[in-house]
Design goal:
single chain, 142 residues, mainly alpha, two-stranded parallel sheet, 6 helices, globular
Length: 142
């Protein structure tokens, strides 16, 4: 017989696990059952528990916008965390965040990935980090 675990216990267990090691949690189910509400409560619980929360909520209109959700994830990261990145990584992030206005060269996806990883690692050295994305089906390709 399968035992149903209350959602609060699952979230509590996930956050405890995430304090110790990289962890993942997927909330799935039919539309309208409260996944986004539970997701938002989880963000609040994580912040209250000392996590640094990077979140994004892409929508159908953002599917064609490159790095839309990544821009959302990084929007709240303070500049000091990004200071000292290698120049090319910093430029990739500046392009994603629409801060680079003088260089029309497309963003290299590998540089962007390396830059984001560096930022998250720096943040994780200070406190646990929760990357939270609602409606992943609307993520843009990059």
């Amino acid at each position: 017989m399968m035992r149903c675990v209350p959602p609060d216990r699952i979230i509590e267990s996930f956050l405890a696990s995430a304090r110790e090691a990289a962890s993942a949690l997927v909330l799935e189910g039919e539309a309208g059952i409260g996944k986004t509400t539970r997701w938002l409560l989880t963000l609040d619980e994580a912040q209250a528990g000392g996590f640094q929360v990077l979140s994004g909520r892409p929508g159908t209109s953002e599917v064609t916008l490159s790095y839309g959700v990544l821009s959302d994830l990084l929007a709240g990261v303070d500049a000091a965390t990004m200071d000292g990145l290698p120049d090319r990584q910093r430029l990739a992030l500046d392009r994603i965040l629409l801060r680079a206005t003088t260089d029309p060269t497309p963003t290299d996806e590998r540089l962007a990935a390396a830059a984001v990883l560096t930022v998250v690692e720096r943040m994780a050295a200070e406190a646990p980090v929760l990357l939270a994305i609602d409606d992943v089906q609307w993520l843009d390709t990059p």
